[in-house]
Specification:
Blueprint (H helix, E strand, L loop, with lengths): L11 H7 L4 E5 L3 H7 L5 E4 L3 H4 L11 H14 L4 E5 L9 H15 L3 E3 L7 H9 L4 E6 L5 H4 L9 H17 L3 E5 L3 H10 L4 E4 L7 E4 L1 H4 L17 H17 L12
Helix pairs in contact: 2-4, 4-5, 5-6, 6-8
Bound molecules: 3-methyl-2-oxobutanoic acid.
């Protein structure tokens, strides 16, 4: 059995990297799962992937700030020992720095989360710097940035050719220098992700970016095997909850139909 991880603070993140300790992150969208995950991983990410996973949309683009705040409040209610980061949704931080400050400020004031995550490299450096300057911890996100999925032509590996790899290296530097406390690397070739991770002092959190990152993140519902049919190469499923849920529903329906449920023990005199 592995020991429970230490409860981290934002400044601890660099220290964890310096000590060679891998960071563990799962997405979380509600209080019930937050209670189950609390203390098991280092960070919970209220990802805008909730727009796909929970709401059934094809992309994250239509997620709203109010939606993110609602789910982040629930996650913060359920977690007491885990850092919570919240995705800033599309168009809540790209238009002006002032809007980014107001919207990230709302997330911090209204949810109790420890920081926000936003997508983009060099062009987001000014915004990251402004957020960090007023005390809002920022997790960066480069490589495959889902809010730009159409521009990128789909959910595909980034940084494969030399020019794209150079852009990724430079984006990582800009995001770190702007003050981000960690950086998600999504769908990046493993060797490039390893190289970028070695060059940075802040931890990288990989998803589809190989073992050389300083930590790993997965979408909770995917790793629990709840998202049937979604089996990208990078995903490892640690449970088959879809099968469990379906079996439980069938057992319930069978028992109701043939009169085995509810029994005397489930009924009131
Ligand atoms: O929205 C999300 O869940 C994410 C992770 C996949 C990193 O951004």
């Amino acid at each position: 059995m592995s020991a429970e991880p230490k409860v981290l603070t934002i400044p601890d993140l660099r220290e964890q990297k310096a000590q060679g300790r891998k960071l563990t992150v799962l997405t979380c969208y509600d209080a019930l799962f937050a209670r189950l995950l609390d203390g098991a991983v280092d960070m919970l990410l209220v990802g805008d992937s909730l727009n796909q996973v929970l709401a059934g949309h094809a992309t994250t683009l239509s997620a709203t700030l109010d939606q993110m705040i609602y789910h982040a409040q629930a996650v913060c209610r359920g977690s007491t020992r885990t850092l919570v980061f919240v995705d800033l949704p599309f168009l809540s931080y790209q238009v002006t720095v002032e809007e980014a400050l107001r919207n990230a400020g709302r997330v911090m004031k209204e949810t109790g989360a420890h920081g926000v995550k936003l997508e983009g490299g060099e062009h987001m450096a000014e915004t990251i710097r402004a957020l960090v300057r007023i005390g809002i911890p920022v997790m960066g996100h480069i490589g495959l940035t889902p809010q730009s999925v159409h521009q990128l032509g789909g959910y595909r590996v980034q940084g494969r050719d030399p020019a794209a790899a150079d852009r990724l290296r430079s984006d990582a530097r800009f995001v770190e220098e702007a003050g981000a406390c960690s950086i998600v690397l999504e769908l990046v070739p493993a060797a490039l992700a390893t190289e970028v991770s070695r060059r940075l002092a802040v931890p990288t959190i990989g998803i589809g970016a190989g073992p050389g990152c300083d930590g790993q993140v997965l979408v909770l519902h995917d790793m629990l095997g709840l998202n049937e049919g979604f089996r990208p190469r990078f995903l490892k499923t640690y449970a088959d909850l879809a099968g469990t849920v379906r079996e439980a529903a069938r057992a319930f329906a069978d028992e109701v139909r043939d009169g085995r449920y509810p029994g005397k023990e489930h009924s009131f005199e």
